[in-house]
Structure formats: C-alpha cells, structure tokens
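Suppose you are handed a protein chain with no further information: no name, no annotation, nothing but its sequence. What can you learn? This example shows the usual starting point.
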Amino acid sequence: MGCFALEVAQDNRLSGVPILEIARTPIFINLGILGALIVPLVSQGNVRNALTAVSLVCLMAMCGLIFAAGVMTFCGLVFLFARLLQAWSARRSNYKLPLLVAWLTVNAVYLPFFFLKLPQFGSFMSVGELALLWGPAFLVFKALHFIHQALKGRVDFAAPGMFRRYLLYMVHFASFYMGPFQKFAQFDQEVSTCKARVSWANAGRGALRILIGAAKMIFVFHVFNIQYFYKSGYYGPFVDALFANAPEAEPGHLWLMVYLFMFRLLLFVSAYSDGVIGMNMMMGIRVPENSRWPFFARDMPEFWRRWHIQAGAFLRDEVFIPVGGLKRKYLGFFAVFAYSGFWHFPLPSTWLAFPALHLAIFYATIRWYAFCDSQERAGTNAWRTIGRLGLRDTVFSATLGMVFVFHANMLSVLFIHDHFYGGTRILPRMFGLT
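A reasonable first move is to predict its three-dimensional structure. Written in structure tokens, the prediction is:
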C-alpha cells in the first residue's frame, strides 16, 4: 500500500506541476537528513542502530510498506547467500564459480524491477524508473560488492554485529536512491568513527554542499524542465514522450532537446551527489566525490574518471578486473559498458550498441595516443605535422576533445535512456534520415 506522503505530493501542485514530479526528479536531498539530527544525540555505540531505524522509517514513508518489506527481504537473503557462497568457495579453494553464481542470481532478481511501477506514481513514473531512481540499482551494486568481499575472506560473519553493520550499509537512506556507491569497509569505518567528525564546522560545510546541490536543481528545474521539457509535454527523468514522438518532430527540435537532456543528466548526478555528500558530512560520514566537472573531459577515458566516479570504481573492481584487467582490457571495456547498459535498462541497444560504440572510441583513443608517442620518440614528420596542426597537448586539441567527448556521450545515452526504442526512432530523425 502507498503512504500518506506520496499521496499528498501527488495531489498538490507547484506552478501547475505535481510536487511528486518535482521531488523525484531526482530527490537530491531526502528524509535521510534526519540522521544529521539524530547522530549528535546518541552515543557512538548507538549510532548504527539509530541510523538503521531512521532509514527503515524513511523507506516506509517514501516508498510504502510493500517496497520496504521487499528491500528488507532482499537484504536478508543476500546476507544469507553471501555466507553460503563463502563456505562453498572455501571448500573449493576458489571463488570464481561462486562469484559467477552470485552475479547471475542477484541480477536475475534485479531484472523484474525494470518493468515495475509504484502505484503511487501513476502516469508520472515510466518503465525503468523504479530501478534507477528508487534504490534497486545501487542496492544491487552494494549486494554484489558485499558478496565479492565475503568470497575474498574480507567479511567475518562471526564478528559481533556483522548483520547490523551490513544492513545499515544497504539501507542508509541518505544515499539509498542513487548512491554514490561506497565500499562496505570504507562506509563501515566511517560510521564507526563518525561522532569524532560531528562538529558545527562540518555541519556548515555539509549545509553549504546541500545548498550548492539545491542551486543546481533549481536551475535544472526552472530552466530546463519548465522552460523546455514540460512545455513540450516531456515529463519524467527519461522523457519517454520525446523518444516516442521523435518521427513527427523537427530535427532541429530534437537536437536542442537532446543537448538539454545531456546537460540536465550531468547536472542531475552532480546535484544529487552534492546533496548526499552534504547530508552525510553533517553526520560525520565522509562520502567520496562522484562528479568532477565531466564537461571538461578531453577524451573518453577521462570523462569516465570524472563522471559517476564511484559507479566507475564499482565497475572497475567488480567487472573490469575480474574479466582480466589490463591483460584483456578491450574485453574488459566491453564488459563494463555492457553491464552499465544493462544496469540502465535491458535492451539490445544497451548491452550491444552502447558498449560497441564506447569500445570503438576507447580503442581509437588508445591507438591515437600510442601513435603520437611513437612518432614523438622517433621525431618523424608525422609528429611535426601533428604539432603544427595543434592536435596534441594544446588548447585547440583539448577543446576539440571536449566537443567530441560531449557529443559522443550525448548520442550514446540515447541507447540507454530510450527505454522503448533504444534510440532507433530519434537518431535517424536527428540526422534527417527519416
């Protein structure tokens, strides 16, 4: 069943738009901030229990009893599953097969969430939004990471309070919806020592970070959403109507909306990360940075080091390295982007076209840098020509790289955010092919 908060947010409007729509796209700051009020009032020994209780209450208030019960059941089963797999891997003296079983099982559980809707959201929540904006996606990240750490012997299930430590890691509400992803050991240590960092100075820094995120969200909502998206009838984070109506739209209009969609997407992640980092800072919990001006990335690898940094860390540790790391880097790149695509929505465009495009760009980038380095060492005419044209280590090359990276990413996100057509309707129309 739903909850009173959702019904109120759905029935009341601000500037003609349901408060529910404003609040959820995305919720850059949420009820998890209550932890900042609770942590100073309890002892260090009781912080974990207090934050867990607050998180569970917030989960029920925001998403309803059924959703909260499903999250708790999932968390309990993952913990039990991790113990069983740890014992199995110990008997085998090898954890590769148990890890594969874990990946297949957890992602099989995750798959149905792409096709579910919360009844409280009605027509404002499209297919796939539950998985990305309401917690299951990052819950899967944390579950897979925890199981992997258990298989490596880095989780002692006999340690006092291990389940409580694990449960808070999974449901900590301030970062439940969209991360940033944080490793279990790091988060556990932060919570265990958070009282030492609770101060008026950190509270002020956290509040300032929240205000910065709020300013970004106000800009996104009032400039991007109200002025462009809502006026065109495009609602929700993934603006399904834009993709559905693409064949009837003018190419110029589509290019404008896709530019705005990309800028909005980048600001969403940055604003949300500001809010989460600020809320946790007020509790004395340090959360790693998640966005460092990706607009200024000069090549594609740098872009992914600047944007969704912690999701990138998860994909590096849990996908790229297990696949083979640098020894099989191109297979690893493809696997990383294929899983990243699947994590957004399971379509052939997300786990084939999206990774193939990025693999081609990564390959070309690596080969270009290798070619330039070899020509520079040899002092060839080709290197002198590259220098005269300003194609390496110049303001011109950096600008050219930024323009290319932005456009390549802008077009590639259509594969993963067009949940019904995988970009097959909008891309041809943008280039005047239909």
